[in-house]
Amino acid sequence: MLTVTEAQERVSHLVESAKKAGADTSDALYSGGVSTEVQIRLGELEDVERSEGEEIGLRFFIGKRSASVSSSDLSDDALAVLVERAAAMAREAPEDQYAGLAPQEMLFRGELPQLDIDDGGEGDPQALRDRALAAEDAARAVKGVTNSEGGGASASRSIMALATSHGFCSGYQATSYGCSASVIAGEGSGMQRDYAYRTARHLADLDSPESIGTRAGERTVGRLNPAKLPSGTIPVVFDPRVSGGLLGHLVGAITGSSITRGTSFLRDSLEEQIFASGITILDDPLRTRGLRSRPFDGEGLRVSDRKIIDDGMLTGWLLDSASARQLGLQPTGNAKRGIGGPPGAGTTNLHLEAGSLSRDELIADITRGVLVTELIGQGVNPVTGDYSRGASGFLIENGAIGAPVAEITIAGNLKDMFRELVPANDLEFIHGINAPTVRIEGLTVAGA
Q: Residue ranges of the domains in the chain?
């Protein structure tokens, strides 16, 4: 795998080669990574995987015609062929009036921000084995756990570099560590399964494997002997394990591609109140040690924190350059891309800001409701906002969390759900998308 400096040199050279081959403009993206993962089951080593790969991609523009090509062979001969193929494809491609690089005047300039997303560590297989074993042992030690799906630990390093023909060239690297455990409790038809995991940029920030394993075991045992839940319209409380998914549906509805195609249930909601007053949802690509932090976006534009929802109001769309041109707007620094095609748009470290109530206070007046800890299926219509998901969790009765429930369905419409959403004060920054416990009134719950 190349170093960051070598990767920058390679993409810069590829852009220069494209220019010599007749490109009016072009950009090149390098992505490389190495990872090691260890899996343990029932105290025995089950699998050790190490992967290392790198790929480079080129977008080649001739006027409004373009082609995207990629290669995992980074030799000079292979890249020369790649440029020739891109040029031939671009000449035959249909015109796209919105295609092109990001505006030159908006490109990131200067020294990269210090995000501290690389701790310099490597994935030692023995250390990973010990971590995975400790997580599984802790999970299996919880009374009531009867079997195990395993414990896992991983470590990885990734490198990304981007160059454009109109003056941008930079790159960065990051590390990532993970640990997980998944176990089973009960016997026969009464068996239940649950899990716990954590990821972090720095190994020092990763929860101990013992705490991860214990959490997995306790969650699993807590699901035994689920009660029946009558169908009805009741308050639903989303645990932080699943509440971030509601933000994911918001993101999908406000990306440029959804708006330009007219396939979003929020397409007519720009600068309108879609959440209650006081609700703030913020995207922060520059968070120190953030799981999705980055110094520039997928087109080389400057990034900054942004309130997507401010006091309940939708402030704007998430736009790459192509969708911005189509809408007559400016790109927002939210471009995301892979090697093999044009950029799209998305978020980085996204979170719903905490409310003022504790979790206990949030549920104190609920006579009968449900706390959802797991969601199943993908029953969301992005055009209408209709929402229907399988779920499991716990009864809420007279302001207290009670017996587990399983095989239920919750349904509503995301527009209504967003307006009714009330956050608790238990926000933690442990995932790429984070939200505290949230309460939503008036959802339809169908029991088993």
A: 4-221, 226-448
